[in-house]
Design a protein that fits this description.
The structure is a single chain. The protein is α/β, with parallel strands linked by helices and 373 residues long. It has two domains: 186 residues, Rossmann fold (3-Layer(aba) Sandwich), CATH 3.40.50.2000; 173 residues, Glycogen Phosphorylase B (Rossmann fold). It has a seven-stranded parallel β-sheet with strand order 3-2-1-4-5-6-7, sandwiched between helices. It has a six-stranded parallel β-sheet with strand order 10-9-8-11-12-13, sandwiched between helices. Helix 7 links the parallel strand 8 and strand 9.
């Protein structure tokens, strides 16, 4: 099978979906001939995968370049990684649906969509307006697709009802961070943290759907109870988060290369990842935590995949996203219970290995494209 994967950003440029594109391309490349069609160089090198530029600053020209590249490569499948904001200002690009439709109409060629975000929710007037054109654009892309992947079960079930004639498959997100050997003591000593200090951890963006006020409240409660637990943050939103963590011992690890992110994760004792709408199979920062065997304290909500319920208390510990008090209690519980920490660490590793390794995700995608899913 020959597959073209489409997304306008690719490593070394920093972008979560760009990193995802790189990881899924590498995993699919062991099972198929894979081409990545992306933005301007430089491009990271992936063994066995061909990466080329097909996106320009001009959206119309990008559409023409994309169609021309696909016509030249002649793939069986074109797998488009989709978030509306990745393709145009305010999530709007009228040339993209036209180009994808043209690609899909070619004989012997099929389009698959991987939906990372369909369109904005109507949470305010600005989002309500943007949703109008994003929804129209999304519908056009769906109509051209022979197969649609969604990153969480809730969306998969919702859109199966909305598009009953489409093949819609759940395809989770893996960790974009490699698991590399790390020296826990060395990383901690860099920041003046002793080996016996409980080090809380946080990784990722400063997106508002992450409940940073829950983290701040848990640290404040610990401090009020006489427990000093510094927070090590790795990511590019330190200024925003430092303001949100006023009064906490906040350590900025910075925006690091992926290997160094892994080493920093391995130096943490407890990983804090509360989400509005709950943890789900699209939360790459959570995946990085369980991949590294960190005891994770998180939340559940409307977007939490049902299978996660089977792992609560074994691979992570969760509370409703509506209860800041329960989250704080869980943080305290994991700090005080060493046996629980060890159980969550081992259970998290098992959960990641069973469901979220890139090889597993790639096989699921290949099976779906082969009509076996």
């Amino acid at each position: 099978m020959k597959v073209c994967i489409v997304f306008p950003v690719f490593p070394p440029s920093i972008d979560g979906i760009g990193d995802y594109t790189s990881r899924i391309a590498e995993a699919l490349g062991t099972q198929a001939e894979v081409h990545v069609l992306t933005g301007p160089k430089p491009h990271a090198t992936i063994a066995g995968v061909r990466v080329e530029t097909t996106f320009d600053q001009d959206p119309r020209l990008s559409g023409e370049m994309l169609v021309a590249a696909v016509d030249r490569i002649q793939p069986d499948w074109v797998l488009v990684q989709y978030n509306p904001f990745s393709y145009g200002k305010w999530g709007y690009n009228p040339h993209l649906p036209r180009s994808i439709r043209q690609i899909a109409e070619a004989p012997g060629r099929k389009v698959a969509l991987m939906i990372h975000e369909p369109y904005v929710p109507p949470e305010n007037l600005r989002f309500h307006v943007m949703r109008l054109w994003q929804l129209r654009q999304f519908n056009s892309l769906i109509n051209s697709a022979a197969l649609v992947f969604f990153s969480i079960s809730a969306w998969t079930e919702e859109f199966r009802l909305k598009y009953p004639d489409k093949r819609i498959v759940h395809l989770p997100i893996g960790s974009n961070i490699p698991l590399v050997p790390g020296n826990r003591s060395h990383v901690r000593s860099t920041y003046g943290i002793s080996d016996d200090t409980i080090l809380l951890g946080l990784f990722g963006s400063g997106h508002p759907n992450r409940l940073f006020n829950y983290i701040h409240a848990s640290i404040k409660q610990l401090r009020d109870d006489g427990v000093e637990a510094p927070l090590l943050y790795v990511g590019g939103s330190a200024e925003k988060l430092q303001a949100a963590m006023a009064g906490a011992t906040f350590i900025d690890g910075g925006k690091l290369p992926a290997d160094d992110v892994s080493r920093h994760l391995s130096a943490m004792d407890i990983y804090l990842c509360p989400f509005g709408k709950g943890v789900s199979s699209r939360r790459g920062s959570f995946m990085a935590g369980i991949q590294h065997g960190l005891p994770c304290v998180t939340t559940t909500g409307s977007q939490t995949d049902s299978f996660f319920k089977n792992y609560d208390g074994e691979a992570f510990i969760a509370s409703p996203d509506s209860s800041i008090e329960d989250f704080c209690q869980n943080v305290r519980r994991v700090i005080e219970d060493v046996t629980l920490r060890h159980r969550l660490a081992e259970g998290g590793r098992r959960l990641y290995t069973e469901r979220f390794k890139w090889e597993t995700i790639a096989t699921r995608a290949m099976n779906a494209m082969a009509g076996q899913e």
